[in-house]
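Running log. JK asked me to keep both predictions on one page so they can be read side by side. First protein, sequence followed by its tokens:
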Amino acid sequence: MPIAIIDGIATRYEVTGSGAPLLMYAPAGLDATLDKWTTQGVYAKTRLLEHLQKAYTCIIFDRRECGQSGGRVERVTWADYVAQGKGLLDHLGIERAHLLGGCMGCCPVAAFAVAHPLMVQSLVLYWPVGGAKYRLSSHQRFAEHLAFVQQNGLAAVVELVTRGGKPFGSDPRGGPWASVIKHDRAFAEAYAKHEVEPYKLIVAGMARGLFDRDTAPGAEPEDLMRVNIPALIVPGRDAAHATFGGALFGGMSAAGGILGCTGGGADGGDDAGAGAGVFGEGGGMRWRSPQETGVGPNSPVPNRGGSNSMSAAPGWPSRLRMLGAFPKRRR
């Protein structure tokens, strides 16, 4: 699988399918690897990547500090994740692309739209993270790592990860660089030599910066309100993906003219899309019923396995285009 060096950090990526370019920020929190599009939860259940690659050139990658991508001990921010995605597009010679984020991947997608709006043709935010429980659990994960470092030191972190091999999302004690430690011996050796106190400040700052609110993080509301990019927003509905956390993207954008469709449903279930709504051209919000949008119960979209969700429909890519999420390129 190809590797691109972006800002001195290796990024493992894959390009699959054909059509307009679609940059995909993977789900799974702090273990966002390209395989999650085919192995994790609703993304595997709906065979999302399989459908999308029929109509789009899908660019999937391991986010930095995840999987086989590299990393650097520094206070990682959403801007760093944006830089990785932009760097990958630059590496591939792509000037403009659709963006899709799942779970925590929605955060850098929103930040990307703010930082580089001319590079973004449209956005899909699928089950954005958010909610008080998500913020608290995220801070708790970093706190457990810091407690382990305080008690045992950084060399013990390397030993733990080397022995167990679990990523940060599975074992918080290993910290946000666990995946890099696991596959890069030189990085692991350098990591163990960091001074503990400065390292603790880096980690604490990273946790506070990434998870600084109860709504969906990634971009400031005032910045999103200035963005005018077609967007589809599918809010989640569980402890890590609070429905209001995803809907916030829509509420914030009403004055700025983001076009979008929202609809929440548990794990792509029968009521996904039951609250579908589309933003009007002038930036105002106009709510539509599932029957109007073609999303949700009694939808004309063909569905598999009895599910009435938009995400489970084999015709999802074309349905997204109909809703304005992936508009055809203007000539």
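And the second, directly underneath as requested:
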Amino acid sequence: MNLRTVIESILLKYPLFYMSIYLLKFDVCFHLCCDKSDKPPVTLSCDKCRLYIEYKCDMNFDITTDPHTRIDILTGERILVSPHRSKRPWQGQVEKHSADSRPAHDPTCYLCPGNHRAEGDVNPGYTDSFVFVNDYAALLDTGDKQAAAEDNLFIATPERGICKVICFSPRHDLTLAEMDISALIKVVDVWQDEFRALSTTEWIKYIQIFENKGAMMGCSNPHPHGQIWAQSGIPSSIEREGQRQQDYYQRHGQTMLNAYLTAEKERGERLIVENESHVALVPFWAKWPFETMIISKREVQTILEFTAEEKRDLAAILRDLTVRYDNLFETSFPYSAGMHQAPVNSGNQRGWHWHMHFYPPLLRSATVKKFMVGYEMLADAQRDITPEVAAERLQQASDVHYKRKG
């Protein structure tokens, strides 16, 4: 008896329930919201699938208004959703909103073509993307170092790495949302080329490609740029995601995100934009107010496997998504974004499925942001507006940048 058979047998006997499904081995939780019924609760189990289904009726529960918990299937983390709080008045911190007006070239910018960087090196007169080793790298390629004897209470090990900066464009006044598709394709090409080159170094085990956009996200320079950190260890969040994805793949013969994407496309309510190769959506378990994720339709482990068409489609969906972000509050939308993909030089990683996270802090306007404090730091992530409401807002946002209107 497989998962589909078990679920269908329940729905035939007890239709129109609110149902929670728990895959115990992976701590995976899916929620199906149905109409109310006076049928009694029922539980079924399937030893072959290691499945436990709690089938319960809550006559008063409404997922759109009542507080509830959702599960991030990639990490197993819980997210408290409190939609009833979305109308509370705000008297807290309001960020300053400055107009995004920058010159095409800033002679004081460390990243513009032809300028001196902080340590004295001169940037070439680049015309597309430009890559260099970070002058203030968080990781250093200092060769093998032996760890001191470990105490079980004080554990420290050397971490070796290479940190690079990628200038997306020579234009100081652009962002990904304002670059044309041809320029974005070149950025994707650079990501792929850098990943390929770094992965040939045997001691490198993980490569993180990311972008911090906006002063609100700690970006130290407004010139459009991102970073690549390649390191000798595998970050703990990547290990968690990898283990859960690998377990799922071994049991089901497909990646977890492939199954999730199929389910999301059937429902449609959280999808933002889709093309032939990728889908952008608000995840069911989103922690940040307007958090999104891009998932490749094909089961690929890293960006190295993308074809020319898939790279073009990635460039297109990146532009569409970031334009919608900017249009939401008519501001250059801040975020931290990055790819999660399989470790390198680390054996079988078949369960991994490439995806890209976007974590933007803005909540109600261009000047009010979400703070992850208190309960979120000490217990679980918490959000007010539901992921479905956030998805609807992004769906309704124009795909034409507000600066180009009129």
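Observation for JK regarding the second prediction: DSSP finds seven helices and 18 strands in the chain.
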